[in-house]
Amino acid sequence: MKQERFERTHWEEWEALAGMLAAGTDDPRLPQAYRRVCQHLALARDRCYTAGLVQRLNGLVMAGHQALYGSTLGLGPQWGRFLAGGLARSVRALAGPVLLAAALTGLPMVVLPLAIAHDPRLAYLVEEPEDLARMERMYQPGSGRFGRASQAQTDVAMFGFYIWNNIRIGFQAFAGGIALGLGSVFFLVYNGVHGGAVAGFLAQAGLGRQFWPFVATHSALELPALVLAGAAGLHLGWSLVAPGRRSRAQALRAAAREGMPLVYGAALMDALAACIEAFWSASALVPPALKLAAAAVLWAAMAGYFLLAGRRHA
Amino acid sequence: MIDTLCAVETPEGVELEFSPAGPVPRALAWMVDAGIRAALYLALATLLHGLGELGTGLLLILLFLLEWFYPVAFEVLARGQTPGKKLMGLRVLRADGAPVGWSRSTARSLLAFADFLPFGFAAGLTSMLVSRRSQRLGDLAAGTVVVHLAPAPRVVLPAPGASEPLAPPFPLSLPEQRAIMGFAERAPGLTPERARELADLLEPLTGAQGDEGVRRLQAMARGLRGLA
């Protein structure tokens, strides 16, 4: 068939499809019209019709493809399933990177306080003296930070800061992993060393009674969040180091898909931790014993969730 | 053939072609978006300044959203186009040609941090220059591409009967026929000199030089297209 006759025969169908796509509504005739134009595009290419016609049909098919294959699944049910156990499953599926990330953050957090208790000068190896002095003042009994009973405004400001800062650290710990995992290792170790040094320094300075109740509750969410985000980053990096039987590009895509749930979980946990840190941990109204009890419950709940949730198929 | 076009096969069994966008238009789009973000931030800061520490807290939360989720919101809700990309005629697509969803868009937005390292998007630029579809690291991990939005070609049905069609003196293969029809299609956009230069190459076919060659080629194209 000559191009001229082909165009005159199908012109109206193309105009109709373009009209439906421009209207943007769910037209029940759209799938059929789209598939007809798909066929026309294949024919036009096979019969060597001109570039102008092929381009026009390609554009129509492209727009139709977008309209037909766009995801329509709402976010609501997805999030429900995700929290009910999908997150825990994703974490267990990446047990290796998660445990490694936990070790990278956890080891300095355990080792440094012990070492600093042995020799307090070690704290000055990793922290600036001014910072440590500021910490010491901050956690003095009766100092400003814990006299906050009714300063809702300051609480909100701190909440905003924790959101902006902590979730960003998680995201960076994930994204840095694409550099063969090195970025994630850096963020995990850096935060572990920093936290361990400060905790060790304050403990040996005799300020533990102020420090531990403050950090205990929200760290139950904040530390696992960092570990999860870093583990997703390590997974990303490892896919480039050892892609296995896939190309590196394929392995990277798969690793990003498997890691994203952990990043979502980390962001969510960081947001919750920011709430707790700003409105509960810093509050002078809550007695320290209650804070420690809440921390114990929260840590147990986290362990229970990640070990047990989502085991049964719903 | 050196060609930046990429093809993906749709479930209907036809190939869709699109042209990935290179670093320059994408950098320009990024700058437009950065300007919009900065303006939004300044507006919010001015607005929330009066609220004291409460305003500081809200501002930080909004800054967080602006930093990480500005591209995600537009890419998912505005058909793959942030305002900057819209201005530059770009769109984010899944590598298989479908629109991007929340997860892929978030992944490529978060990894923009890695693309930025060590300074000024050096990692992303390297990745775009090396990868076949001009993908930055975030695109590679999320399985997305940024493509040029092809301007809808203005195809109008040619009017029949302007001049007598001409039969070629010997049979032509299909690609040869397409080349001649393509010449006629593009001739209105060529300078007369360039049209003559191209037609002169086909003297063995047309048996003429200069304007007469152009006229004969167009007459043959009318015949091949089926314009009587």
Secondary-structure blueprint:
The complex is a heterodimer of chains A (314) and B (228).
Chain A (H helix, E strand, L loop, with lengths): L2 H21 L6 H17 L4 H19 L5 H19 L1 H24 L4 H4 L2 H10 L13 H24 L6 H23 L3 H34 L6 H34 L6 H21 L6
Helix pairs in contact in A: 1-2, 1-3, 2-3, 4-11, 4-12, 5-9, 5-10, 8-9, 8-10, 8-11, 9-10, 10-11, 10-12
Chain B lengths: L5 E4 L5 E4 L4 H27 L2 H26 L5 H6 L1 E5 L7 H9 L1 H5 L5 H9 L6 H6 L1 E5 L25 H13 L5 H9 L2 H4 L3 H16 L3
Antiparallel strand pairs in B: 1-2, 3-4
Helix pairs in contact in B: 1-2, 2-4, 8-11, 9-11
Would you give an account of this structure?
The complex is a heterodimer of chains A (314) and B (228). Chain A has helices at 3-23, 30-46, 51-69, 75-93, 95-118, 123-126, 129-138, 152-175, 182-204, 208-241, 248-281, 288-308. Chain A contains 12 helices and no strands. Chain A is mostly helical. Chain A is 80% helix and 0% strand. Chain A has 2 domains: 3-69, no CATH class; 75-308, no CATH class. In chain A, helix 10 (208-241) runs parallel beside helix 12. Chain B has 228 residues and is mainly alpha-helical. Chain B folds into 2 domains: 6-148, no CATH class; 174-225, no CATH class. Chain B is built from 11 helices and 4 strands, in the order ββαααβααααβαααα. In chain B, the strands form 2 sheets. Chain B has a two-stranded antiparallel sheet with strand order 1-2. The radius of gyration of chain B is 25 Å and the shape is elongated. Chain B starts with 5 loop residues before the first strand and ends with a helix. The interface between A and B is large, with 67 and 61 residues.
